[in-house]
Recover the amino acids of this structure.
DNA sequence: ATGGTAGCCCTGCTA
């Protein structure tokens, strides 16, 4: 089975690139973030014609998350639900669905803006809410993958320069501890399981200052998965070509393969 | 050249 995550930075602007990706990437499940679309504007039929069922938690101008699947979609959840307070209430940042033999979750973790700030504090609270939500609906024994834009680089080797990001969001000890808490619950950073030590493996490059061509990036798009999936991962890659060419997103897709019984 | 680009919807805000 092949799963992938991609922050497309507006599905309206990026639809041709997403169609192109679906044509060559051979993914079974694709989790998308930052659709920036209302549900009524989501291109369900376009994806259907390409062989994918899709579900969308849309908001309009900002955020918006989706799941595309060619192995079925059921048991859809939109956001944290009524029992868990959302520190970013009103934002469309989470959708989950059963896709074939696994549950896929598409998350768009809040950016946090600056340190310190109210937005940063609520980013950490959002991670805590995610942990509560996982606990409420799943167990570490489930075949569960939480894919998305975490807006956290888990380790120093996941950024092009530690000094450049000193004092910024995405690299603070508290944010990294929030990701680690998910791993403590039972999730594995599957990309790092395949590439444990390699540096320079990024998934996001700022549009500004030619960062992509200067290899100034960050690895903030993660595929966390429980052992039922993580123990069977055979391949993981960043599709850097998707960051090149005409009207690219500032993020590249991250693809993970695992064997199914 | 004193921080740059992309996307949104009023041209300032968010990333």
């Amino acid at each position: 089975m092949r799963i992938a995550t991609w922050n497309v930075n507006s599905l309206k602007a990026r639809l041709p690139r997403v169609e192109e990706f679906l044509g060559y990437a051979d993914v079974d499940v694709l989790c998308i973030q930052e659709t920036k679309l209302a549900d009524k504007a989501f291109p369900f039929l376009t994806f259907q014609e390409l062989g994918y069922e899709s579900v969308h938690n849309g908001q309009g101008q900002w955020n918006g998350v989706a799941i595309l699947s060619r192995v079925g979609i059921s048991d859809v959840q939109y956001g944290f639900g009524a029992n868990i307070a959302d520190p970013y209430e009103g934002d469309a940042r989470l959708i989950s669905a059963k896709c074939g033999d696994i549950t896929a979750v598409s998350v768009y973790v809040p950016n946090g803006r600056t340190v310190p700030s109210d937005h940063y504090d609520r980013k950490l609270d959002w991670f805590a809410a995610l942990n509560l939500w996982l606990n409420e609906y799943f167990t570490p024994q489930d075949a569960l993958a939480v894919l998305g834009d975490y807006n956290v680089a888990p380790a120093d080797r996941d950024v092009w320069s530690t000094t450049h990001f000193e004092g910024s969001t995405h690299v603070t000890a508290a944010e990294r501890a929030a990701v680690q808490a998910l791993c403590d619950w039972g999730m594995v950073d599957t990309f790092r399981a395949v590439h444990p030590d390699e540096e320079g493996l990024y998934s996001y490059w700022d549009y500004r200052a030619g960062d992509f061509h200067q290899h100034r990036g960050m690895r903030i798009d993660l595929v966390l998965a429980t052992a039922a999936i993580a123990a069977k991962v055979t391949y993981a890659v960043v599709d850097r070509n998707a960051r090149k060419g005409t009207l690219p997103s500032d993020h590249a897709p991250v693809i993970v393969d695992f064997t199914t019984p």
